[in-house]
Structure formats: structure tokens, C-alpha cells
Write a structure and sequence with these properties.
Elements lengths: L6 E5 L4 H11 L6 E5 L8 H13 L3 E5 L13 H11 L6 E4 L14 E8 L9 H9 L4 E8 L7 H12 L4 E6 L4 H6 L8 E4 L11 E2 H7 L10 E7 L7 H11 L4 E7 L3 H9 L6 E6 L13 E2 L1 H6 L4 E4 L4 E4 L2 H12 L7 E5 L3 H12 L3 E6 L2 H11 L2 E4 L13 E4 L25 E4 L8 H8 L3 E3 L1 H17 L7 H19 L1
Parallel strand pairs: 1-2, 1-8, 2-3, 3-4, 4-5, 5-6, 6-7, 8-9, 10-11, 10-12, 13-15, 16-17, 16-19, 17-18, 19-20, 20-21
Antiparallel strand pairs: 12-14, 14-15
């Protein structure tokens, strides 16, 4: 089977011409399946849209018709009478298949479609809160049906129950599509077809996703190389409380692609490191070979490892995990990733005065690196007790971080932000320092890299300080991670180019909006 036939691109629009335009834009992905969400259309537009879809089907397009009521995640309320009328008309259009709710299966002669997908959706309940076995059994009892179960996955570990059902379906030769909805469920969408799912649903673009966590078709095909993933593919991933803004998948997958390695890097969003290790890593759901660990898990993850190397022990935090056959090894590449960009601007750091904002794993890495350079460090934190603890570990002083950027940093040579303040999303407007409070500072180093220009970077430029963005550190520590995981040198310049292309494309999209 052509791997492209395993992607289903979801299309929607309020009017028939919108469907026509969307369908034309994705025909280059033939022999993909094209799902048309007829429930997204205004009622008066359905007849015209059916004609457009029928014409496309006659030219070889594999059309999947969906007419889902709002109670099952559709766009509007649809009566039983409307559904019967729609399916009777659709059954005569030569479509590849239909996607039905269980109660709709017997409303009309569904056998007129070659492929019948029977769906269950839970946009709020997690798999563990659902009678999954009962639901699966009920759907599997429908003759010749392709089963689809989509459930809310707020943490990566919540997708494990769906994955176990996929294994059961594979053993019984049943066609089953598992969908973990939400950012934390993306891994189920990326890996599903490699592990026996007949298809995975994708969106035309990031802005046109029709379900939480749905991945853009270009990202599935090019970023994750979804068509090339097999059960032998080695899996690497990002362990974070929020993976949505991270560039790690972009830069690591670019490096894997450039070296032709059968490896993929995917996001594993989780609030609980414990659950991830117990329900994903320890159950060998796939060939997990390494993790990049970030906020806020760099310290907690150490409890679940068999070995901590010298770099991580020095810092007291882990940002890299290597899975060998029998061991889980924790390392830290932040140490070397941080210091290089700073020394390029400030070669002699001995006796320099450096303010470190933050009390997490990143702050510990920064403090350890600067201690080696014999700099004088001061730890600033909202939680003074945590700041005092880190300062005691690395021979520095501690102070309270004032709210609204009112802490005075004017007596320092270097100010380093090792918190997520300024990161795209809910923290984008958080200030850790104002331009007025940065007067006289020589260098301001913000470890946040997305967006490239954070509130702190802007304030530093206004104060006349030299600035270092977090992207430089991200690239250097990621290149070190690549070498740890693969035993090979990271391809020169590939990660940096991938990151710059991402920000360039993001800027173009923003301008277009």
C-alpha cells in the first residue's frame, strides 16, 4: 500500500466553493484520503458540495464523507431526518467511504460505501475514565467496520490505553484508528500508521485543524517523516509540561533527516514524569531511545533514572536521557550549551558579576557553568528559599525577585534569565526586568528562544546592553544531545538553518494574518 494512502486530510467550510478550493489545494497528496466535513456546511450549501465531491471522486479522489452532529463533535445540531436524507444522497456519489456515529450505522444502507468508519469521540473524558473495552467491543461488532476511538489526552501517558487497544486490534486483524486529542496526544497521531492503524487524520495547515492536536499534513510528511516511520524506528522525544512552543522537534528531526537515520523526535507533553515513565517508557510501547527534558522536569526526572553522569551530577539537573538496553542514563548538555555563546562575547568571566534569574534546573546549569568560570553569581527567585538553596550549592548569593520587572540589576555585568518568562503563550507578557533596571548591564542573556525577541531582550536593547537570545544555547545543547543519542557528530549547521527557517516562515504567516 502506498504510504500516502494512510493519511486522511480533513477539509471543512461553510460554503461549497470553500470545499472546492480546499479539495483542489490537497489533490497533490493523492492517493491520500480526503475527508469532507459536510456538517461544517450551511444546510443550503450541502447539495452543491456533494456535486463537487462527486466530481472529484469520479476523477479518482478518495472522498470520505462525514456528517457528524454537534453532540458527537460536529459543527452544528443535525436531526436524524437530516442525517438520513444526507446519507441517502451521499451513498450514490461514488465516495471511498463514510465516517458514521454508531447510532447512524443503521439509518441507511451503509453497505453502499466500500469503507465504513464507525467513530466514538470523547472531547472531555480521558481514556482511563471511559469504558474503553465496552466501547471497542461494541464498535468491533459492527460488520466490516473500521473502528475509530478519539479521546481527550491531557498527558502523554493518557494515550497509552488507546495504544494498547491498537496492539489488540493488530493481533485480531481488526482495523482500528486510535486518536489522542490535544497537544499531549500528538504522539498517537504521528506513530499510529506505523503500528497498524489504517490511517491518521491530518489538517491542511496548522490553522485549519478540525480537532485538538491534529497535525498539519506538511508537518506529518516532512517534519516527522510520518510515511517512513516503522515499528523499528527509534523514538526520541521532548518531555515537558508544555511542548507546543518547542523548536526541539524541528531541529532534531532536521538532523535525523539530514543524516538519513531511522529516527524521529516527537513531543511528549506531561505534567507527571512518574506517569510517563510508568505508563509509557516502562511498557515498551515503542522503541524509546532518548529524551530531551525541559521545564519543569529537569530535577524530578532524576528519580526515574538508573545512572547520572558527572555533568548532570554537578548541576543537580538532567536535560538529556539516554535509554540503553538495560539502563536509563541522565546527562546535562545545558552546561556546555550555555557557556559557549557567553564566552564568545565575554571571554574573561572571572570575577564578573552575574545575576541569574530563576530557581529551576536551567538556573542550576547556568550557575554551575559560571562557577567553573569563577564568576560571582547571585540567584534571584520569587521563592527566596529556593534561591538561597541554589546559591549555597554553587557558592553565590541570593535575593528576592521583585514583581513586574522592578528588581534593580544595574550593578551586574551580566543578567541571565533562566525562567520561562517571555515564552510564547500565557507567559509572553511576563517581565523579569525593565530597561530602567538594566542600565549599565553589559550583556543580557535570555534562555527563552520562542519568540526570538522577548520582553527582556527588548528591554535590554533599550538599555543599551548587548543581547544573547536562547536560540544559540538551544542549538549547541541540542547538537550535544544528538551526539549522545547517536554516537555521531551532529550535521554542521543543519539545526540552526531549520530553526531560522521556522522563524522566517512564522514571520511570513504573521504578516499574512
Amino acid at each position: 500500500m502506498d504510504p500516502a494512502s494512510k493519511i486522511c486530510i480533513s477539509l471543512a467550510g461553510a460554503r461549497a466553493p470553500q470545499i472546492a478550493v480546499a479539495l483542489a489545494s490537497v489533490r497533490r497528496f493523492d492517493p491520500a484520503i480526503f475527508e469532507i466535513r459536510f456538517d461544517s456546511l450551511e444546510p443550503a450549501e450541502i447539495e452543491s458540495a456533494l456535486k463537487i465531491a462527486k466530481q472529484a471522486a469520479s476523477t479518482g479522489a478518495k472522498i470520505l464523507a462525514t456528517f457528524r452532529p454537534k453532540s458527537a463533535g460536529g459543527f452544528r445540531d443535525i436531526s436524524i431526518e437530516e442525517r438520513i436524507e444526507f446519507w441517502q444522497k451521499a451513498s450514490d456519489c461514488g465516495f471511498w467511504g463514510c465516517d458514521l456515529e454508531p447510532e447512524d450505522v443503521f439509518l441507511f444502507p451503509a453497505s453502499s460505501f466500500s469503507n465504513i468508519i464507525v467513530s466514538f469521540h470523547s472531547f472531555e473524558a480521558k481514556p482511563a475514565d471511559l469504558p474503553l473495552e465496552e466501547i471497542y467491543g461494541r464498535l468491533a461488532s459492527i460488520p466490516n467496520a473500521i473502528i475509530k476511538i478519539a479521546a481527550n489526552v491531557p498527558e502523554a501517558a493518557d494515550g497509552a490505553a488507546l495504544w494498547q487497544l491498537l496492539g489488540r486490534a493488530r493481533e485480531s486483524d481488526c482495523k482500528f484508528i486510535p486518536i489522542g486529542m490535544g497537544e499531549a496526544g500528538k504522539w498517537t497521531r504521528i506513530l499510529a500508521t506505523a503500528f497498524g492503524s489504517p490511517m491518521t487524520y491530518v489538517a491542511i495547515s496548522d490553522n485549519s485543524a478540525l480537532a485538538p492536536g491534529q497535525i498539519a499534513v506538511d508537518d506529518f510528511l516532512n517534519l516527522y517523516r510520518g510515511q517512513s516511520i516503522t515499528q523499528d524506528t527509534e523514538i526520541f522525544g521532548l518531555l515537558a509540561e508544555n511542548t507546543s512552543y518547542s523548536l526541539s522537534p524541528i531541529i532534531h528531526n532536521a538532523a535525523f533527516a539530514a543524516t538519513g537515520m531511522n529516527r524521529v523526535f516527537i513531543p511528549f507533553q506531561t505534567a507527571s514524569v512518574k506517569r510517563f515513565f510508568e505508563e509509557v517508557a516502562e511498557k515498551n510501547l515503542f522503541k524509546l531511545r532518548g529524551l530531551a527534558v525541559t521545564n519543569p522536569h529537569k530535577i524530578d526526572v532524576m528519580r526515574y533514572l538508573d545512572e547520572i553522569d558527572e555533568s548532570a551530577e554537578t548541576v543537580g539537573a538532567v536535560n538529556t536521557v539516554l535509554f540503553t538496553e538495560n539502563r536509563r542514563i541522565g546527562l546535562n548538555t545545558d552546561l556546555m550549551g550555555f557557556i559557549g555563546p557567553l564566552k564568545a562575547r565575554f571571554p574573561e568571566l572571572k570575577s564578573s558579576r552575574v545575576a541569574i534569574i530563576g530557581t529551576g534546573g536551567a538556573a542550576r546549569s547556568v550557575a554551575a557553568a559560571l562557577r567553573r568560570q569563577k564568576a560571582e553569581i547571585s540567584i534571584f527567585g520569587r521563592d527566596l528559599a529556593k534561591a538561597v538553596s541554589i546559591a549555597a550549592c554553587f557558592g553565590g548569593s541570593a535575593a528576592q525577585l521583585k514583581p513586574d520587572g522592578e528588581t534593580d540589576f544595574s550593578s551586574f555585568d551580566v543578567v541571565v534569565n533562566a525562567t520561562p518568562a517571555g515564552t510564547i503563550g500565557p507567559l509572553s507578557g511576563v517581565k523579569v526586568a525593565t530597561a530602567e533596571r538594566l542600565q549599565g548591564v553589559r550583556i543580557v542573556y535570555d534562555l527563552v528562544y520562542n519568540p526570538p525577541r522577548t520582553p527582556l531582550i527588548v528591554a535590554a536593547e533599550e538599555a543599551g546592553a548587548e543581547v544573547i537570545g536562547g536560540l544559540e544555547m538551544l542549538i549547541k545543547q541540542a547538537e550535544a544531545q544528538f551526539e549522545i543519542w547517536t554516537g555521531s557528530l551532529s550535521p554542521k549547521g543543519v539545526m540552526e538553518i531549520a530553526a531560522q527557517q521556522y522563524f522566517g516562515n512564522a514571520a511570513k504567516t504573521s504578516e499574512a494574518d
